[in-house]
Design a protein that fits this description.
It is a single chain. By secondary structure, the chain is an alpha+beta fold. It starts with a helix and ends in a 13-residue tail after the last strand. The strands form two sheets. The chain has a four-stranded antiparallel sheet. The chain has a two-stranded antiparallel sheet with strand order 4-5. It has helices at about 5, 15-25, 40-50; strands at about 10-15, 30-35, 55-60, 65-70, 70-75, 80-85. The relative contact order is 0.23. It has a single domain, classed as 2-Layer Sandwich (Alpha-Beta Plaits).
């Protein structure tokens, strides 16, 4: 895989209350990823961008919601999330604080 492709895989971190609890309990971090990204690509992209070792990757495909605009029915675009489990001793800090 080429490095330019890996840099486009991760779109943004997905930070919610649920992912914060998951991060504390299971050493998992959630990311929004490209719709065509595979698990090996996601693993390599996280290892390349953050300098950590990845234990496993789980992927969830989210369907877009159906919305109405008056008489017209439309659909929001779907997305893809990846839950990345880090090996013990590795951590990703999105807050930028050093303690």
């Amino acid at each position: 895989m080429n490095q330019a492709r890996l840099m486009k895989i991760l779109l943004a971190p997905h930070i919610t209350e649920k992912t914060s609890v998951s991060d504390d309990e299971r050493r998992q971090v959630a990311f929004r990823v490209a719709n065509d990204a595979t698990k090996p690509e996601i693993k390599r992209a996280v290892e390349l961008m953050f300098g950590v070792e990845v234990e496993s990757v789980q992927v969830a495909n989210l369907k877009g919601k159906v919305k109405r605009f008056g008489q017209t029915v439309g659909r929001r675009s779907g997305s893809r999330k990846a839950y990345v489990r880090l090996k013990p001793g590795h951590d990703i800090d999105f807050t930028g604080t050093t303690e």
